[in-house]
Amino acid sequence: DQQVKQNSPSLSVQEGRISILNCDYTNSMFDYFLWYKKYPAEGPTFLISISSIKDKNEDGRFTVFLNKSAKHLSLHIVPSQPGDSAVYFCAATGSGAGSYQLTFGKGTKLSVIP
Amino acid sequence: KAGVTQTPRYLIKTRGQQVTLSCSPISGHRSVSWYQQTPGQGLQFLFEYFSETQRNKGNFPGRFSGRQFSNSRSEMNVSTLELGDSALYLCASSLDTVVYGYTFGSGTRLTVV
Predict the structure, then answer these.
(1) Would the CB atoms of B43 and A42 count as touching at under 8 Å?
(2) A41: pLDDT confidence band, cut at 50, 70 and 90?
(3) Interval A1-25 mean pLDDT
(4) CA-to-CA distance for A60 and A78, rounded, in angstroms?
(5) Do B42 and A105 touch (CB under 8 A)?
(6) CB–CB of B104 and A93 under 8 A?
(7) Which of A103-112, B55-64, B96-105 has the lowest mean pLDDT?
(8) Cα–Cα dist A64/A44, whole Å
(9) Separation CA B5–CA A105 (nearest Å)
(10) Which B positions 27-46 lie with beta carbon below 8 A of chain A?
């Protein structure tokens, strides 16, 4: 059973426009969420995170929104740039023993078209 | 500072063999975690070590094992390799739990033939 789901395998966006990547989770014990970006032949790189006590976290062009009641989070990239083209992974973790591991979604491949 | 170093980068093994992968964490990081990435299953947690002790283990068969040394370097071993073990194996290091931030290595690409 997939506890973290990214239902869109791919997304294409024009340069300069907004990219919105979505993620749903089912485990109520998750209370900390992260987004990673991955280029081919490299390991994932941390982008931004959010704790369940917040509903929004912003870092430059990247904003993550958390809707706890819907068990949904989204990553907004504004404006999108060609260098943002990569696979984006949503990940979640919980308190206590669960905080020793991340549960990942299967990723969304973002293509930013110049 | 140096990042997380995984060796080797690429490996080809035959079914039934065993393999050992190595991970050197960022200096000062005492937690090392291992993940398997496959096209079908995505990134899946294997195990996590902190100060030479395994704190958490994912849902993988006993053929997958690991250990951590006193200098925080870690190895993972897969015995009796199967075709389905072909994957990218990623190591991540952290000061402690995930909320301190993970830094991933570039991974070891294992191909089982």
Answers:
(1) no
(2) confident
(3) 95
(4) 9
(5) yes
(6) no
(7) B96-105
(8) 17
(9) 24
(10) 31, 33, 35, 41-45
Shortest distance, CA A69 to any CA of chain B (angstroms): 22
Amino acid sitting at position A105: G
For residue B52, CA distances in Å to B21, B67, B69 come to 16, 7, 6
Compute the distance between CA of residue B83 and CA of residue B16 in angstroms, rounded to an integer: 9
For the stretch B51-97, pLDDT in tens is 999 999 999 999 999 999 999 999 999 999 999 999 999 999 998 87
Beta-strand runs (E) in chain A: 4-5, 10-14, 19-25, 30-38, 45-51, 56-59, 62-67, 72-77, 86-94, 103-104, 108-113
Contacts with A107 from chain B: Cβ below 8 Å: 42
| Under 8 Å between Cβ of B16 and B80 | yes
Closest approach of A44 to chain B, Cα-based (Å): 6
CA distances from A3 to A6, A66, A108, B94 (A): 10, 16, 16, 23
Distance CA B33, CA B49 (A): 6
What the block records as the tokens of A101 is 């591991």
User: What tokens were used for A18?
Assistant: 């907004």
User: Which residues touch A53 (CB under 8 Å, ≥6 apart)?
Assistant: none
